[in-house]
Amino acid sequence: MSGESLRRATATELRAAFQSGAATSRAVTDELFAAIEREDGVLGAWLHLRHEEARAEADRADARYATARAAGPAALSALPPLLGVPVALKDLVNLTGTPTTAGSRILEGYISPYDATIAARLREAGAVILGKTNMDEFAMGSSTEFSAYKKTVNPWATDRVPGGSSGGSSAAVAAFHAPLSIGTDTGGSIRQPASLTGIVGMKPTYGRVSRYGIVAFASSLDQVGPFARTAQDAALLLHTIAGADAHDATSSRSPLDAVLLNLPSGDAAASAIRGKRFALPKEYFVAGMEAGVERAVRDAVAALEVAGGIVEEVSLPTTEHALATYYIVAPAEASANLARYDGVRYGASKHGGGDLLNGYLETRGRGFGPEVRRRIMLGTYALSAGYYDAYYVKAQKVRTLIARDFDRIWAAGFDAIVAPTSPQVAWKFGAKMSDPVSMYLADACTLPANMAGLPGVSIPCGLSENLPVGLQLIGKPWSEAELLSISAGYEALTATAAWRAVAPHDLAKLGGGAA
């Protein structure tokens, strides 16, 4: 393997090539850095790169593979599945000695003094961490237009957004700058950009992956998860980062299914869909959904039925309240979490005149962008005396009702919920910036799973207006392996579909200089 084939290889393909000696991690790493150097001036996916550190990690991985090849097949199979495989981190994951800005000026210049748990697990697995990717400031946004540093474009159409808040991570994978990346999902920030850029993105069950060392947005909603180009690759990354963590009391000891390391493939994957029961909620086909998106999703549902899946329309009546509930709970938690950014302990500071209050206001006023300030004000209002019971407490009660709606689906024997990921394809830059509510509605199909703490995955299911459409699968708690197995089955069913052969249209434009 060499050149473009190295760049476009999946993690699973790279693992096989490293084991056989057909490719080296160093060659892949060099190829990807060369592509980033040529193209990121337009793509805008990266905030910080680790050139020397990543190459050293790649060299160590190659040495381990060489030793294992000399020792025989058993030694090779015992190596970690992501050894030598490049990974990108969203820039809210702490990594020792690396800037962590969460896309905000208030953390400009901050260097992480420790590793997040998931970063430590990636290091232990021997993955090559290329760098940090762009994001909406403090993960607040659905388009990556709220980054304080740069805009990230969609490699399918450079005049359109990649989704958000993990737009840098999704664009890096879609543009073949990395086979894998890490995102976070608070209200859809993995699944929605995965849909808009035509890749696989999974939000695990709340507590499946440790949040220790992750810059917090809304602590009861945030969850870390993988981006990849195939379900199997996403499963390998999830298996590497998931598991209980003594540093995070919300992390779960629920065991991981070993099938994540080797999902069914081909005919075996497709046949596994037979007999599965899928719930199709009518409320997820929201008002304003684009006709092409609905058509692609319904075609995908029909393909599941042809494969022997049983699809039944259901009602999740509290879905219509999820958006309003989320925008009480999430800003309230953000207001509390972001109180720590005061310019005294770390990050940017405008103190200096001796007036503590003015320094505090100046630091936060200049350090936070408009969307972050908007949500802090909303959250502080919802938590204030006289409004706490009327808004925050009521929202938590509705959140319980949303979770009960899902419980009813599982009690009825359904294996998964199938629905659109996003009601629209990627929109043009600026189209929603003057109307925050319109931007919030982009997450209408993904928010309910966060409110209930459920796992969800978005997989490509076709094109509309020549842009990617995502199919969302939502499962019962701890069912990530089943969701990814179904995803692998759908990939097998559609392997020869014409839309599968279409690459992001504007890849050639990425080498043309600054956006």
What does this structure look like?
With 515 residues, this protein is of the alpha/beta class. The chain has a single domain (3-316, 407-509), classed as Amidase signature (AS) enzymes (Alpha-Beta Complex), CATH 3.90.1300. The chain is 41% helix and 12% strand. It is built from 18 helices and eleven strands. The protein has helices at residues 3-8, 11-20, 25-43, 51-71, 73-77, 117-124, 167-174, 191-197, 231-241, 266-271, 291-306, 319-337, 356-367, 370-383, 388-411, 436-440, 447-452, 480-493, and strands spanning 46-49, 86-90, 128-133, 180-184, 200-203, 224-228, 277-281, 310-314, 416-420, 456-464, 467-474. Strands 1-3-2-4-6-5-10-11-9-7-8 form an eleven-stranded mixed beta sheet, sandwiched between helices. The mean pLDDT is 95.
Question: What's the short story on this structure?
Answer:
The chain is built from 18 helices and eleven strands. By secondary structure, the chain is of the alpha/beta class.
Element layout with pairings:
Blueprint: H1 3-8, H2 11-20, H3 25-43, E1 46-49, H4 51-71, H5 73-77, E2 86-90, H6 117-124, E3 128-133, H7 167-174, E4 180-184, H8 191-197, E5 200-203, E6 224-228, H9 231-241, H10 266-271, E7 277-281, H11 291-306, E8 310-314, H12 319-337, H13 356-367, H14 370-383, H15 388-411, E9 416-420, H16 436-440, H17 447-452, E10 456-464, E11 467-474, H18 480-493
Parallel strand pairs: 2-3, 2-4, 7-8, 7-9
Antiparallel strand pairs: 1-3, 4-6, 5-6, 5-10, 9-11, 10-11
